[in-house]
Amino acid sequence: MNVAVDPVRYVAKNMRLDLRLIAEMVEPGTRVLDIGCGDGALIEHLFRTRGCDARGIEIDMAEVTRAIAHGLPVMHGDADNDLAQYPDGAFDYVVLSRTLQAVERPREVLRQMLRIGERAIVSFPNFGHWLVRWQLLWTGRMPMNAVWARPWHETPNIHPCTIRDFFALCDDEGYRVEKWLAVDEDGQRAPRRRFSGLANLFGEQALFQLRKV
Amino acid sequence: MDQGESPDIAQEYVAFDDGLALDYGSRLRRLEVAYQTYGQLNGDRSNAILICHALTGDQYVAERHPLTGKPGWWEMVVGAGRPIDTDRFFVVCANVLGGCMGSTGPLSPRDDTDALDPPPWGMDFPAITIRDMVRAQKRLIDHLGIRRLFAVVGGSMGGMQVLEWVATYPDMVFAAVPIACAASHSAQNIAFNEVGRAAIFADPDWMGGRYWEHGRVPAQGLAVARMVAHITYLSERALTRKFGRRTRASQSLSLLDDMFEVESYLRHQGSTFVRRFDAASYLAITRATDHFDLAEEHGGNLAAAFKGARTRFCIVSFSSDWLYPTEDNRAIARALNGVAANVSFVEITSDKGHDAFLLDEPDFHRALAGFLAGCAEHAGLPA
């Protein structure tokens, strides 16, 4: 039996657009941990285009197998249980993309991220978006749309938050927001950076870069 | 049982006349390491992969076994175009210290006497450790002129050796693949080993460990040891799928002579095993695995064993392995995280138990091939 090894390919074309935005935040040659890395598209992109030492943690075993078979350093694990083992300052960036709302203890996960990494890059779907608000107000039922695609009893998103909620948490925890932006679902930047209230109403996704003060 | 074929076969081996100092303080005055190689060592000797075999494995990884005539134990993984591609890598596998396929072990002549024709060590063979096995392999690797191994790969007890390689010679291992193993044996692991040892001791042909003096082999005891161990290598589901409660009718009419297929299978496993393995080796090696405790060697802290290691790791476990369960393997991965090592870790879904690492598991083979390909890129090996 022969095992075909996929050639290591350049996948940035297929990379989710918010991953592209995250990649732009990462300085070349740095150490990066991507939590919830999926098939490893971001870490491969960071290795190939920015010379980063990028690694991943992923909860879905099929994705882990795919990533390792693709030659990427990915381990099975999750944000709630697999950050505590790392030493302080092991990474320059710790990335958590579209996962914060699905972890058990988001506040603790953020603390761990900023313990093991100098900076945290976090993206999450914004529950304050006008459509979400409208659906809840108008139908009286949990919002269902492209971003919040599953019924309340099926969703893994157990800790939804809004952009303003997240700013408040950063205040509480003493994190400095170095960069932030609101993006549409298709990854286009929403030009509302000065007005977080508007971003909170019109941004479908939020992207933050944090650092401990 | 009378002594059958002894491994008097042509073996590739190297002898070190300066011997080997052992962990427990004694010293072998002469060390022999039997090994096989596959593929070609490249010009700068950078493409070598050392494979560490398991408890009852040997160096015949990818070729017909000289005693049993069976295919190599890892032909699915090692060979041209296989995950460990011998068109690309130079593969070395040595019979472990304490083994019985040509490396120094209990069957070797004692070296602590001036007798002209010294008898075998037998039970007087000094106690060895997994680290002693690794040190013996290191001598071979030095002898082959290899300064850095591109990878060290092994499953089960082979995985323990992989871990010990990185802990003992961190700069010599670019990539490490410990498969289906643990950093120490659980009480259950030790218990099963002890049943095997007790079966050997209980065999009348054991003769207090001097069976070779009488031209005997404690075949019954060794076979029972193998049967018990073999159960731990499988899973309940694999046994059910393979045998269920099917019986094999006997010629006689007695119900007692009817045999479940699983019984016949285990007996076959036991009887073929004794043709190629020595009881004293089995005792020496199982002892070494029971006493292996990588954390204890480093002040009780497993992470400390890997401090400063720049090795890239790929840890693989199998979902139905209850001998070295995923949690044992995950503990190694987490210890490696503790020193921010570069580590991949995956559990392969399989119902074949511990033995899965030897069997046709496409996801495992893809992961192994991909990991090695990625490491080769980082190591700058030509494609």
Radius of gyration of chain A: 17 Å
The number of distinct structural domains of chain A comes to 1
Principal-axes shape call of chain B: globular
**Helix/strand structural class of chain A:** alpha/beta
Instruction: Note the run of SSEs of chain A as H and E.
Output: HEHEHEEHEHHEEHE
User: What's the shape of chain A?
Assistant: globular
> Biggest sheet of chain B, strands in spatial order?
1-4-8-5-9-10-13-14
Broad CATH class of the largest domain in chain B: Alpha Beta
Average pLDDT metric of chain A: 88
The computed structural class of chain B is alpha/beta
Main-sheet strand order of chain A equals: 3-2-1-4-5-8-6-7
The major beta sheet of chain A can be summarized as: 8 strands, mixed
User: Which H/E pattern describes the elements of chain B?
Assistant: EEEEEEEEHEHEHHHEEHHEHEH
- First CA to last CA of chain A: what distance? 56 Å
The CATH architecture name of the largest domain in chain B reads 3-Layer(aba) Sandwich
The CATH topology label of chain A is Rossmann fold
- The number of domains of chain B is 2
The mean pLDDT of chain B is 94
Features:
heterodimer, A: 213 residues, alpha/beta, Rossmann fold, 8-stranded mixed beta sheet, 8 strands, 31% helix, 23% strand, globular, B: 383 residues, Rna Polymerase Sigma Factor, Chain: A, 2 domains, two-stranded antiparallel ribbon, 9 helices, 32% helix, disordered N terminus
Helices and strands in order:
The complex is a heterodimer of chains A (213) and B (383).
Chain A lengths: L16 H9 L5 E5 L5 H10 L2 E6 L2 H9 L4 E3 L14 E7 L8 H11 E9 L4 H10 L23 H11 L1 E9 L5 E2 L5 H7 L2 E8 L1
Parallel strand pairs in A: 1-2, 1-4, 2-3, 4-5
Antiparallel strand pairs in A: 5-8, 6-7, 6-8
Chain B lengths: L12 E4 L3 E2 L5 E2 L2 E8 L9 E5 L25 E2 L4 E2 L4 E5 L35 H14 L5 E7 L1 H12 L4 E7 L7 H16 L16 H15 L2 H7 L4 E2 L10 E2 H14 L4 H13 L20 E7 L7 H12 L4 E7 L13 H18 L4
Parallel strand pairs in B: 5-8, 5-9, 6-7, 9-10, 10-13, 13-14
Antiparallel strand pairs in B: 1-4, 2-3, 4-8, 11-12
Helix pairs in contact in B: 1-2, 3-4, 3-7, 4-6
